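re: the backbone from monday

yeah here it is again, tokenized this time
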């Protein structure tokens, strides 16, 4: 077998990576280049003659550097991005090195088993039923697609329709009930699945974005046919959590399937201090969450859980003569997620969980929530929400969006914007394991200074 030069490019990659990571505390958080500058640095015609691999890596790192957002930084507070722990990053490097196709057990036995193990740890951590099936996907978007495909199968099966064979043409119409302040990935999943956004019935939420049980009950009273109810743990703007126990009571009494969007909020179940926010979560039918948010593993890493394994497999499973399908107690991942060939995402999740342990995960959740509260205390009357988790929502009046731009340009921290109840707002999410009190205090000082300048 031919032996390529692995040492040169991998050594260069290691040196570039450690230089980037160790430089994060002093690096401006935002990007320092525009698209034209990056096209000039990275573009040009494909050369006829190849270039030495180590030189390619060095040039790539140099050319891309100005356009790299320091999202692994402890002062990146945009969206809900957690960075990566050292163990998770190292396991991700091994994942790329091993290059396992994790769709089939036969193509990657260790990849399959590590997903079983890590999936079991997560079931236990979140307090989900022991029989719950697990799938490793790219993120919350595909987790919703997977879970709602299982829900589509089951609610139509109960109505006497085989959607996998017959499709949706002629099928009983599915109604999807969700909070008016749901995440847009729910709507997008319904588009992907052919259910359509016209099937959505939005129900009223309170001033923090939590679904109102009475509004849900009223909505369900007016619906005939198969129903899926989508609840939310962790409103993307406020962090608020729907009253899951009450929602399950009402929805299940009408025969509906309950899906929980817990992209980051489901992790509250791992904390004794915050678990009350998700009381009753174990009674839902399916759940979505991300590991690349609060668990701090590299992108991309989403998780789907289903309390009805048969429905999960019916929606996702596939058979083909040329494949080596699992038998006995083996598990093929492609029976639990939409992808055929895919990366072995279980290794970084396993490494993160094994390194942190149950107590470490709880400490990570609690500490980032405490830091969000600390930031809110600095910001005083600018805070719009009840800070129940790691999200702080701020307003500075008409100048809010301009202020967000100036904060990013200043470089100390990175924040994102939104529109909340018709007005511009700044979102501040504390999700990174390296964030400490000094990062919070520096960010608060910069934002307040720029807001008054």
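seq for it, each position gets an aa:
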């Amino acid at each position: 077998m031919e032996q390529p030069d692995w040492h040169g490019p991998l050594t260069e990659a290691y040196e570039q990576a450690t230089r980037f990571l160790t430089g994060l505390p002093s690096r401006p958080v935002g990007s320092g280049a525009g698209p034209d500058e990056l096209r000039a640095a990275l573009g040009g015609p494909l050369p006829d003659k190849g270039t030495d691999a180590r030189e390619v890596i060095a040039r790539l790192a140099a050319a891309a550097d100005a356009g790299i957002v320091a999202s692994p930084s402890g002062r990146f507070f945009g969206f809900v991005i957690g960075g990566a722990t050292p163990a998770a990053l190292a396991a991700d490097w091994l994942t790329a090195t091993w290059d396992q196709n994790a769709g089939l057990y036969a193509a990657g036995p260790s990849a399959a088993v590590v997903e079983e193990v890590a999936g079991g740890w997560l079931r236990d951590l979140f307090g989900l039923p022991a029989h719950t099936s697990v799938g490793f996907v790219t993120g919350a978007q595909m987790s919703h697609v997977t879970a709602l495909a299982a829900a589509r199968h089951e609610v139509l099966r109960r109505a006497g329709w085989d959607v996998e064979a017959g499709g949706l043409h002629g099928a009983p119409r599915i109604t999807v009930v969700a909070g008016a302040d749901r995440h847009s990935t729910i709507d997008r999943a319904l588009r992907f699945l052919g259910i359509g956004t016209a099937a959505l019935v939005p129900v009223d939420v309170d001033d923090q974005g939590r679904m109102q049980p009475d509004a849900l009950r009223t909505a369900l009273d007016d619906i005939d046919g198969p129903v899926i109810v989508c609840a939310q743990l962790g409103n993307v703007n406020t962090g608020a959590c729907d009253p899951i126990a009450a929602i399950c009571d009402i929805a299940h009494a009408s025969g509906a399937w309950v899906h929980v969007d817990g992209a980051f909020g489901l992790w509250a179940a791992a904390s004794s201090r915050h678990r009350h926010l998700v009381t009753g979560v174990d009674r839902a039918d399916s759940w979505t969450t991300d590991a690349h948010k609060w668990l701090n593993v590299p992108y991309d890493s989403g998780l789907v859980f289903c309390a009805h394994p048969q429905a999960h497999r019916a929606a996702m499973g596939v058979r083909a003569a040329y494949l080596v399908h699992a038998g006995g107690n083996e598990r093929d991942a492609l029976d639990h997620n939409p992808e055929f060939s895919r990366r072995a995402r279980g290794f970084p999740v396993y490494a993160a969980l094994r390194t942190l342990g149950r107590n470490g995960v709880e400490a990570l959740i609690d500490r980032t929530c405490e830091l969000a509260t600390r930031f809110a205390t600095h910001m005083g009357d600018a805070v719009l929400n009840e800070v129940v988790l790691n999200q702080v929502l701020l307003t500075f009046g008409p100048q809010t969006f301009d202020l967000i731009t100036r904060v990013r340009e200043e470089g100390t921290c990175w924040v994102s914007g939104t529109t909340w109840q018709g007005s511009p707002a700044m979102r501040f999410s504390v999700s990174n394991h390296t964030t400490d009190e000094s990062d919070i205090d520096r960010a608060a000082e910069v934002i307040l200074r720029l807001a008054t300048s």
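The first strand starts at residue 133 and ends at 137. Residues 128 and 282 are 5 Å apart (CA to CA).
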